[in-house]
TrEMBL record:
Name the record gives this protein: Iron-binding zinc finger CDGSH type
A Pfam family it matches: zf-CDGSH
GO cellular component: cytoplasm
Annotated GO MF terms: 2 iron, 2 sulfur cluster binding; metal ion binding
Keywords: 2Fe-2S, Iron, Iron-sulfur, Metal-binding
Domain Iron-binding zinc finger CDGSH type: 19-63
Superkingdom: Bacteria
Amino acid sequence: MPAEPTRVLVTGEGPLLVSGPVEIELPDGGTVVSERAVTALCTCRRTRRPPFCDTSHRRRSKPQ
């Protein structure tokens, strides 16, 4: 086990925030790597940069 476990923050209305470098396996079997300190992964499926969040969830209309 690594010295510090990978931290994943689940936000209520936004992306999953993954701490540290991460390798992501895609549905087609491919992989993408992010070396960022924190990587935001889309959960709303509106992003134009899957699997990464591009803040498209902010444009969603809120119920009245």
